[in-house]
Design a protein that fits this description.
about 190 residues; alpha/beta; Rossmann fold; eight-stranded mixed sheet; 8 strands; about 30% helix
Length: about 190
C-alpha cells in the first residue's frame, strides 16, 4: 500500500523532467554543388591523392548552433537553427567532394594510413551570420603541402552571401552557398 503513492509521485515527475532541449523542427546540412558522379571510379594509379583534414574551429562555431555576430565582442545564436553535426565536419566533406569533382584528385580522409601525396588542413574562422551586414560569412585559413615537399602554402578564403532574415529557414541556404563558394576557391587553388 505504501508503494502506490511512490509510484504515483514518480509518474507525475516523469512528465516534468526533461533531459535536453526540444529539438528544432529540422536540422541543417551542407549540400555540395560539385560532386563526383555516382559510379565513377577514381584511382591513385592515374590521379594524384590528397588528404583533407577536418578544420579546426573555435568554440563559437564548434557547436551545432548557428552563431550571429552582433558586434566584435558578442554573439547570439539563431533560434531553431541547428546543424546535423558540427560545421567543421560538414565543411570537410564538402571540401573533399568539391576537390574530387573539380580536380580529379583522389580524396582521402584526414586520418588516412597511407601516404596522401598532398595534405590540406586549416582553420574554419567564420561560419557565422554577420548581423551588421546581413551576410552569411565563411572564412577558411588553409594550409597545403603539395606532394613530397615539406613546403607549406597558406591562404585565406572567404565568401559572403546576403541573408534575407536572421531566421532558421534563411540562414542555412546562405551558409551553404558561401561554403560552396569557398570550397570552389580552395579546389581551384589545390588543383593548379
Amino acid at each position: 500500500m505504501k508503494t502506490l503513492p511512490a509510484i504515483a509521485a514518480a509518474a507525475l515527475l516523469a512528465g516534468c523532467v526533461s533531459f535536453g532541449s526540444k529539438p528544432p523542427p529540422s536540422l541543417l546540412v551542407l549540400d555540395s554543388s560539385a560532386a563526383v558522379t555516382v559510379g565513377d571510379t577514381q584511382s591513385s594509379a592515374t590521379s594524384p591523392t590528397i588528404a583533407v583534414a577536418t578544420p579546426l574551429a573555435s568554440q563559437e562555431i564548434a557547436v551545432q548552433r548557428v552563431p550571429v555576430r552582433s558586434s566584435d565582442t558578442s554573439i547570439a545564436y539563431v533560434k531553431d537553427a541547428q546543424w546535423v553535426e558540427p560545421p567543421a565536419n560538414l565543411f570537410a566533406r564538402l571540401l573533399g567532394d568539391t576537390i574530387a569533382a573539380r580536380t580529379g584528385r583522389v580524396v582521402l580522409g584526414g586520418q588516412a594510413a597511407i601516404n596522401p601525396g598532398a595534405m590540406l588542413a586549416g582553420n574554419l574562422r567564420n561560419f557565422t551570420i554577420d548581423a551588421a551586414t546581413m551576410e552569411a560569412v565563411v572564412t577558411y585559413d588553409a594550409s597545403l603541402i603539395r606532394g613530397d615537399t615539406q613546403t607549406v602554402e597558406t591562404r585565406r578564403f572567404e565568401a559572403r552571401v546576403p541573408v534575407s532574415a536572421i531566421a532558421s529557414d534563411s540562414v542555412g541556404p546562405a551558409l551553404n552557398q558561401a561554403a560552396n563558394q569557398v570550397a570552389t576557391q580552395v579546389a581551384d587553388w589545390v588543383g593548379r
